[in-house]
Specification:
The protein folds into two domains: 91 residues, 3-Layer(aba) Sandwich (Udp-n-acetylmuramoylalanyl-d-glutamate--2,6- Diaminopimelate Ligase, Chain: A, domain 1), CATH 3.40.1390.10; 172 residues, UDP N-Acetylglucosamine Acyltransferase, domain 1 (3 Solenoid), CATH 2.160.10.10. Helix content is 14%, strand content 27%. The protein is built from four helices and 40 strands. The strands form six sheets. The chain has a twelve-stranded mixed beta sheet with strand order 8-11-14-17-20-25-28-31-34-37-39-40, covered by helices on one side. A ten-stranded parallel beta sheet has the order 9-12-15-18-21-26-29-32-35-38, with no helix packed on it.
Length: 334
């Protein structure tokens, strides 16, 4: 099991030890405040859990400066401006992401002779890798995953169980969770009373480095231009991203979001759970949309929107308050 000193953790997590006398103390695991024991590391980033912080049995806790005075006696403190980020970095020291456990190709996997598998990859049972596919070093391909013809996957990627990838280029350090579907044809056809006419989908899906794609998420290939998922995007489970959509870097897309075709998101856009976004829209850098909202018009950079249809967040709050007042008046009148 991993044993790590607080000195090493403080460097990795960009945190500062409150007392250097604790630098050689050894941590053997990470755990929540309420469950931690003497050789565990925990964190506090929400004042709701101050009492748990005061009562914790953890050997060390990552905290913000404003909570240091609440620390219990005997607990080593690591000070961070962003305790949750520091905890995430520290936790990866104990639980590395996208680890290849047993390199090799399962006898029951099928790999085309023209496919290229780099060193130290693990290909599990039932996986299918088609002709011309290229998989970089240190990749994991889970059971029953399908890698289509000509797909390129960069180094240090994790492709989960039963994932399918076609017509795609995947960057490095990408994690795609179980059941995701990447690169299938988009929902494109010409509507006509005599019968709808499918439009051939000829673009690709380009997934840049350090992207996370959740379980059962679907990302369609472009109709003509490529569908693009920018570097560092975090996409939750059960998300639908249509053809020609472009996400900038660092976007956060929460579960059950649907983004219609040809919409473009800037960098670090956040869409809350179950947001629906109409097609052919533009959302500026840093825009945020509240959960369950319906976006039908462009959103400028840095703006926060909410509601159906989505409007600036303060306007939405006034609308909700006005409806509540109206209902109250109606009840009084009756």
């Amino acid at each position: 099991h991993v044993h790590v000193s607080l000195r090493d953790i403080s460097v990795k997590a960009s945190a500062t030890l409150n007392d250097l006398i604790d630098a050689d103390r050894i941590v053997r695991d990470v755990s929540p405040l309420s469950q931690a024991v003497e050789d565990n590391l925990s964190f506090l980033d929400n004042r709701k859990y101050i009492q748990q912080f005061k009562d914790t049995n953890a050997g060390a806790v990552i905290v913000h400066t404003k909570y240091v005075d609440h620390g219990p006696s005997g607990v080593a403190l690591l000070i961070s401006d962003n305790p949750y980020k520091s905890y995430a970095l520290a936790a990866q020291m104990f639980y590395p992401l996208a680890v290849v456990g047993s390199p090799g190709i399962s006898p029951s996997a099928w790999v085309d002779k023209s496919a290229t598998i780099a060193a130290n990859c693990q290909i599990e049972a039932g996986a299918v890798i088609h002709c011309g596919a290229e998989i970089g070093e240190n990749c994991f391909v889970g059971a029953n995953a399908i890698i289509g013809e000509g797909v390129v996957i960069g180094a240090n990627c994790h492709i989960g169980t039963s994932v399918t990838i076609t017509h795609s280029r995947i960057g490095e350090r990408v994690m795609i969770h179980s059941g995701a579907r990447i690169g299938q044809p988009g929902f494109g056809f010409s509507i006509d009373p005599s019968g709808h006419v499918p439009v051939p989908q000829i673009g690709l899906v380009l997934v840049e480095d350090d992207v996370r794609i959740g379980a059962n998420t679907t990302i369609d290939r472009g109709a003509a231009v490529d569908t693009i998922i920018g570097a560092g995007c975090m996409i939750d489970n059960l998300v639908q991203i249509a053809h020609n959509v472009q996400l900038g870097k660092g976007c956060v897309i929460v579960a059950q979001v649907g983004i219609a075709g040809s919409t473009k998101l800037g960098d670090y856009v956040v869409l809350g759970g179950q947001v629906g976004v109409a097609g052919h829209l533009n959302m500026g850098d840093g825009a945020m949309v509240a959960a369950k909202s319906g976006v039908i018009r462009d959103i400028p950079a840095g703006e926060r929107y909410g509601g159906i249809p989505a409007v600036p967040i303060q306007q939405w709050k006034r609308q909700v308050a006005a409806i509540a007042r109206l209902v109250k008046r109606i009840r009084k009148g009756s």
